[in-house]
Amino acid sequence: MKSNQIVHLLNSLIMLFTLPALPYAYDALEPFIDTATMQFHYGKHHQTYLDNLNKAIAGTPHEGKSLEELVAAAGTISPAVRNNGGGHWNHSFFWEILAPKAGGTPTGDLTKAIDAAFGSFDAFKEKFANAGMTRFGSGWAWLIVKDGKLEISSTPNQDNPLMDVAEVKGQPILGVDVWEHAYYLKYQNRRAEYLSAFWNVVNWQKVAEHYAKAK
Ligand SMILES: [Fe+2]
How confident is the model over 142-171, as a mean pLDDT? Predict the structure, then answer.
């Protein structure tokens, strides 16, 4: 067993959350998401949310609860669990819906659902990017399933649509991080350019899997 596997096993035995493996190399999403951004975003930002979440629940009645349970009750637990539990959930989700040599268009049922909800794939992309652009400060834009239908929403900070505090609740199937830490090294203040590049690395296969479970 490798040392990181032993650490993972020990952490899971004492109920600490651990950093999920990045499903591709740091440079795999170039040129759309650059290597340095991935190194800092995954290795520093996500790690910090994770460490602070573990600290926030250590020795409390919330230790041992699943991440989903913590997120669902985030508003009633503590700001630290809301911010860092959200940060851990959101980033774990985000790495999975990105992939190298991805992008293109969705297929099958998801295409039909997008057309039904938004009129066309292009109209959906415009509305989703707009949700990201108009999120003031830091936060996320989401494509969610709500009451069996697709909707676009956005959340501030590290909130997400699974939280009790979310204005619009639903099951996320796609999300984009619009914190400056997600794009500033390459795009500086050009959030629109980052959001445009994002479409080249969307893992539609994973989004379709999320949709199949959520619909
Ligand atoms: Fe982030």
Answer: 98
